[in-house]
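TASK: fixed-backbone design
INPUT:
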């Protein structure tokens, strides 16, 4: 019986740990300075935090025209460039790469 309780606690602790990681990552990704740095480093597209605006989290997919809600969406001002950030703790094979 104690072993069962230990398994439940371990599973529960992992879930709490995952929730904490999600919160930390979401907080980091809400920082426009960090997003500007990320875009510069990974896409070699120089922008400043003032050039980014937070956008509505809902969007319509081009496949199936389904309404989805993203964790965070930014739009680069005066462009039609959107940065959609989705934090995944498990693999979602429907997500484009």
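OUTPUT:
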């Amino acid at each position: 019986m104690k072993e069962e309780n230990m398994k439940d606690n371990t599973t529960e602790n992992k879930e709490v740990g995952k929730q904490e990681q999600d919160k930390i990552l979401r907080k980091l990704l809400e920082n426009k300075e960090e997003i500007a740095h990320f875009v510069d480093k990974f896409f070699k597209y120089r922008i400043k935090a003032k050039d980014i605006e937070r956008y509505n989290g809902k969007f319509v997919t081009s496949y199936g025209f389904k309404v989805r809600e993203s964790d965070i969406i930014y739009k680069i001002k005066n462009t039609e460039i959107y940065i959609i950030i989705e934090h995944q703790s498990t693999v979602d094979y429907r997500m484009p790469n």
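COMMENT: The chain has a mean pLDDT of 78.
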